[in-house]
Amino acid sequence: MSNPQEINGGACVAMVGKDCVAIGCDLRLGMQALTVSNNFPKIFQYDDVYLGLTGLATDVTTLSEVFRYKTNLYNLREERKIEPETFAQLVSTSLYEKRFGPYFIGPVVAGINSKTEKPFICGFDLIGCVDYAKDFIVTGTASDQLFGMCEGLWEPDLGPDDLFETISQALLNAQDRDALSGWGAIVYVITKDKVVKRLLKTRQD
């Protein structure tokens, strides 16, 4: 039986810069080698936090709504926006709750803490073990290719424009080498003042 995380394909990467953070994903929804759609974004916004979800498409859709519900409850109870570190713990505990029948997904969290103004990224495994990172974090079927590209391109203290260029090149070149991801990409560059969202055109094959 094939790995459920690889049935629908997909790739996501988050990267840290100087007082900024970027997260990007491809737009392909596939059924193994068959492409079903090229308009399936895998990044979801919760207040000022961004969550990338790759893996089984049904679990991606389900979990994105679960986290919207839990974030709204947090906002009502705490009367403030959720911070990236808090959201990461929310994702971790939510996945661990289902450890005996896990969601087949690979989450990535990115955001900037509103108090310290420091960028934050992390990833998770199926049952919610947190993987904190100071440089970049990758997930999806193109993980191996993304690791190689990011290791080669990423540098410390990149500005927002350079960070966008770096994450875009890493994402585009990695998904060109992976048959299960690609067909367009979307990148968010997050600073304390604004969020810039860009759509990238890629090969459609």
Number of helices: 4
Share of β-strand residues: 25-35%
Mean pLDDT: 93
- CATH topology group: Glutamine Phosphoribosylpyrophosphate, subunit 1, domain 1
Instruction: Name the helicity range.
Output: 25-40%
Gap between N and C termini: 26 Å
Q: Low-confidence segments, ≥5 residues, pLDDT <50?
A: none
Under CATH at level 1, the class stands as Alpha Beta
Radius of gyration: 16 Å
General shape: globular
CATH architecture: 4-Layer Sandwich
Tally the structural domains: 1
Sketch the major β-sheet: 5 strands, antiparallel
CATH superfamily annotation: Aminohydrolase, N-terminal nucleophile (Ntn) domain
Count the E strands.
12
Q: Structural class of the secondary structure composition?
A: alpha+beta
Strand line-up in the sheet with most strands: 10-1-2-11-12
What is the N-to-C order of secondary-structure elements (H for helix, E for strand)? EEEEEEHHEEEEHHEE
What do you see in this structure?
It is a single chain. This protein is α+β, with helices and mostly antiparallel strands and 205 residues long. Helices cover 31% and strands 33% of the residues. The chain has one domain (4-188): 4-Layer Sandwich (Glutamine Phosphoribosylpyrophosphate, subunit 1, domain 1). The strands form 3 sheets. It has a 5-stranded antiparallel β-sheet, with helices on one face. It is globular and about 45 Å long.
Which features would summarize this protein structure in a list?
single chain; 205 residues; five-stranded antiparallel beta sheet; 4 helices; 12 strands; globular
